[in-house]
Amino acid sequence: MTSRTPLTTPSPSPLADDADAARRREEAVALAGDLLRVDSTNGNETAVAEVLAEYLAGAGVQAELVARDERRANLLARIPGTGGGPSLAFVGHSDVVPADARDWTHPPFSGDVDDDGYLWGRGAVDMKNEVAARTAAMASLARQGWQGTGDLLLVVVADEEDGAAWVGMNWLVQERPDIRTDFALNEGGGIAFTLADGRHLTEISVGEKGTAPVRVDAIGEAGHASTPTLGDNPVPRLAALLARLGRGEAEPLDHPQVRVMLDTLLGAGAVDRLGLAEAIRQGGLLHPDLATSLPAVAGTTLTPTLLHGAAARNVIPARAGVTLDCRILPGTTEEEVLAAVRRRLGDDIAYELSLPEPPNPGNYSTSKGPLWDVVQRFADERLRTTLFPTLCSGFTDSVYLRREHGTVAYGFSPFATTPAAVIDAGYHNKDERVHVDDIALSADFHVYAAAALLG
Ligand SMILES: [Zn+2]
């Protein structure tokens, strides 16, 4: 459950006089509703960019639409700095995953606000809420005539959910090197939870795991299925290998970021004190979500998913295989993944390993430095929580920002009212919704972060 923290400080901003706060909060919520009413199911993102550009123009910010495919434009906006200071990008994506209206309590593109203050729609938590908050924060700063020492950018991209069309961030980082910033705030964090020992933590995503799928083929001898003892059927052999893979649970890995997570949960030096496996186990006891997420994040997962057999029913195949969805910590090599698979399989059954696609490595940013300090200060003052630096087991566009530009990129947008269970249940699912207070809070946070970091 989320800890509900009363918001006692009237002005969240280090700006001397944050006269625009009330208007900003209202506009953030209204803009989120407008964005939810645009159906940008992976495609049609230009319509979202146009809503944002028109809104920003009202605050005197000239946005630019940059498109490789005219239906799928990305939006860039900038408040130039006076020079000499660090630069910061507010990042988001404008596409959403499909929604089947038959399953929803409120239609997925309605942008309804219910009596309890929840805003409903596909993208309410992933991530038109954050896009609206970041855009309203930039507009608010512009209206107040604010200028940082470094540039403040807003980068809202298409095609994050799929990425295959190469029109969103993966294309933009190459096409427009001028979007490079020292720091970035993107999706992936901000959910608060209370540990079994009473401590309040708020997640901040500092990195992403990568993927390195592996295919395992049991080797046999092809033959006619009518005479099962003639060939050497690899299918039963695959069954034995599958049993050894089990559910593909991760092998724990002593990784610097895993140590940071365990230190936050269990105190400094947790791994040296307890041993890695025991530290992960004790960390899992602190919250039911950690019991599943911590072991998965803290190593290489080897999850069997796709099965491959004969092309026809009457053929005993020469090979029968399984593809493993493997998620790797940043820095884990192809050889290390293959070695982990071999350890599970043993050496008494004939099999071969192959890589069905090239590994896509993840990366992460340091959990210290100026942006970290700013977020931690906001968490202390406004949320009264400690930051918990997690790695995302999925994927976000922050990977490209770190890889191409060396940007320190975090996933963070604070939630103080929407329960974690509601947020988690809504991701890519029916009835996605967010409390409007969290959109307003996020707009406040982004003004705070820009003003504190860029001066
Ligand atoms: Zn997303």
How does this model look, in words?
With 455 residues, this protein is α+β, with helices and mostly antiparallel strands. The chain is 35% helix and 21% strand. The protein folds into 2 domains: 21-196 and 362-454, Zn peptidases (Aminopeptidase), CATH 3.40.630.10; 210-253 and 298-354, Alpha-Beta Plaits. Strands 1-2-5-3-6-19 form a 6-stranded mixed β-sheet, with helices on both faces. Strands 9, 10, 12, 13, 15 and 16 form a 6-stranded antiparallel β-sheet that branches. α1 packs antiparallel against α3 (128-143), α3 (128-143) packs across α14 (436-454) and α11 packs across α14 (436-454). The chain is globular, with a radius of gyration of 24 Å. The two termini are 35 Å apart. Residues 1-11 have low confidence and may be disordered.
What are its keywords?
455 residues, alpha+beta, Aminopeptidase, Alpha-Beta Plaits, 2 domains, six-stranded antiparallel sheet, 14 helices, 20 strands, disordered N terminus, binds zinc ion
